[in-house]
Amino acid sequence: MNMNVKMRPPPVDLYKTLHAQPLNVVPVDWIFDRLRLVSELLLLFKMVQRFRGGCIATAVGDSGFQLITLQLADDLAFIRVALESFRATRCDMLSAQQWQRLHGELNHMLCDLDARRYLENYQQQTVFLEELLEIIQRLARSGDYSVLTVADSPGGKSSRCFATADADRALIKLVMVEVLPFAEMMGRLRAIATYASVVDDPDPVLAGELDTFDPAIHRQLDTFRRDASYFQHYALKGIPSLVVRQSNETQLLQLVGMVKEGLINGRIEKPDSQQVFRLATEVIDVHLQIVEETLDYLTRKVQHSLLTRKDSSGEGF
Predict the structure, then answer these.
(1) Residue 51 CA to its chain's centroid (Å)
(2) Would you call 194 exposed, middle or buried from its count of C-beta atoms within 10 A (0-12, 13-18, 19+)?
(3) Distances (CA, A) of 77 to 28, 31, 74, 83, 90
(4) What is this structure's pTM?
(5) CB-CB contact of 32 with 301 (8 Å)
(6) Residue ranges of the chain with pLDDT lower than 70?
(7) SS3 (DSSP) at 24
(8) What is the pLDDT of residue 22?
(9) Torsion of the alpha carbons at 160, 165, 169 and 175, rounded to the nearest 10
(10) How many CA atoms lie within 13 A of 235 on its CB side?
(11) Which long-range contacts (CB under 8 A, 24 or more apart) does 234-238 make?
(12) In angstroms, what is the C-alpha Rg of the chain?
């Protein structure tokens, strides 16, 4: 199973353009830097989620996850360097305590993780992911996106590519308040279900948590189906995963059924740990792809806004 993740390099050329231009675009520049940091933190979020699932499976005896965990450790080390570089240039985006927390948790996962304490590791990594989630939500939702001017071009191309600021704010709320937390719920399910598929006598606390996922997932699906129907037009503006997620629902329900019947009720044969991990990862990745595409969309809108200001002023970068 290939769990390598494509690392997305920061848009260096656009970043240099933003900081080299003489226009008074501080709010737009500020939004752009925040979007860059959110993208880096989202990548960290994704890797820590996978690392959590791989570590707990490896610790309880599934050697098939050992290589995956080592690869993820390399990815986490790469992200740590990228975040330290960002901290050196824009440390004001997070508090000193938050930067120290990021650095300390990454060091712990890469250097001090004791496999024998896999339950404590799972809880600690889950708390860290909850903190990351809150930081990402705050950064993404605190931007004043009304400053992103979208002057239409002949043929209405701009209006086809970008929505209004009010629509964007509603989209960001959907993605950050519903989609991203749902991805973390599925991440916890992936870790616990993979663990439960390896051991014969799972920890009662984790086994009890496994029972709570089925009703919670169905409640969230009902909410998301209702809310996402208002955002289908964004599929034509660079966020196609909003539509792909609907077809992915079949895999999600298959996973939930596999966990319920194979790991909770015992009505079918216990599923293979690799199968559980792979199917859960496919579901999670679709939801995280929605978040990534939303950040890419907002970044393109920042770039368009800057180019529009440049053209209207007659000045060059």
Answers:
(1) 14
(2) buried
(3) 30, 26, 5, 10, 20
(4) 0.85
(5) no
(6) 1-27, 143-159, 309-317
(7) coil
(8) 41
(9) 20
(10) 13
(11) 234/163, 234/171, 234/297, 236/160, 237/160, 237/161, 237/162, 237/163, 237/297, 238/161, 238/293, 238/296, 238/297, 238/300
(12) 21
Cα–Cα distance list, 251 to 9, 46, 246 (Å): 30, 19, 10
Of 241, 293, 288, 212, the C-alpha closest to 48 is 288
Residue type at 308 in one-letter notation: T
Contact 42, 291 (CB under 8 A): yes
Look up residue 187 and give its two tokens. Answer: 């991440």
CA dihedral over 56, 250, 264, 217, signed as positive or negative = positive
Q: With beta carbons less than 8 A apart as the criterion, state whether 40 and 82 touch.
A: yes
Distance CA 189, CA 186 (A): 5
Q: How many CA atoms lie within 13 A of 297 on its CB side?
A: 31
Helix, strand, coil percentages, rounded to 5, for the chain: 80, 0, 20
Is the dihedral angle over the CA atoms 198, 200, 206, 207 positive or is it negative? positive
CA atoms within 13 A on the CB side of 81: 8
Alpha carbon of residue 146 to chain centroid: 24
Closest among 207, 312, 205 to 265, alpha carbons compared: 207
Identify the burial level of 208 via C-beta atoms within 10 angstroms of its C-beta, where 0-12 means exposed, 13-18 middle and 19 or more buried: exposed
Q: What distance in Å separates the CA atoms of residue 123 and residue 229, rounded to the nearest whole number? A: 35
Distance CA 16, CA 101 (A): 29
DSSP class of residue 23 equals S
Interhelix angle 273-313/241-259, nearest 10 degrees = 160
| Residue appearing with tokens 């050697």 | 63
Count of all residues that appear for the chain in the document: 317
Q: What would the pLDDT profile of 155-178 be if each residue is shown by its tens digit?
A: 556 667 888 888 898 999 999 999
Do the beta carbons of residue 5 and residue 51 sit within 8 Å? no
Q: What is the pLDDT of residue 24?
A: 41
